[in-house]
Amino acid sequence: MRLLISASLLAAVLGAGAASAQDIAAGERSWNKCRACHQLGETAKNGVGPQLNGLFGRVSGTVEGYSYSTANKNAAITWDDAVFAEYIKDPKAKIPGTKMVFAGIKNEKEIGDLTAFLKQFGKDGKKQ
């Protein structure tokens, strides 16, 4: 009986983990909302928005060669999962005065998937 309960508990825990796993393919589809202004990958360049290679761990307003708003340069936030999630929901609320014109992504699962997709790209644009 104890073994049956332990097996059931393990299955429940593993199932919960799988259900909350991020979907990189879904994140790539979500990335299509960003592509009009941002680039990723080994050939990424700044466009309407800065290239996003190596975003996580980077300080806001620091991509070389990109002309940031004063608000973004002065925000001095370090991009991590929580900060990105808050920002991407409503960029103008997180950094008032940003020149990023985007309505935001409100769905938590979509944000998680997009985060997982972006995290694949190192500073050099190579998938890690």
From TrEMBL:
**Keyword field contains Protein biosynthesis:** no
Domain named Cytochrome c is located at: 22-122
Q: Which domain of life is it from?
A: Bacteria
Q: Which InterPro entries match?
A: Cyt_c-like_dom (IPR009056), Cyt_c-like_dom_sf (IPR036909), Cyt_c_1A/1B (IPR002327)
Signal sequence extent: 1-21
Q: Kindly state which keywords UniProt assigns to this record, in alphabetical order.
A: Electron transport, Heme, Iron, Metal-binding, Signal, Transport
What is this protein called in UniProt?
Cytochrome c family protein
Its source organism is Bosea rubneri
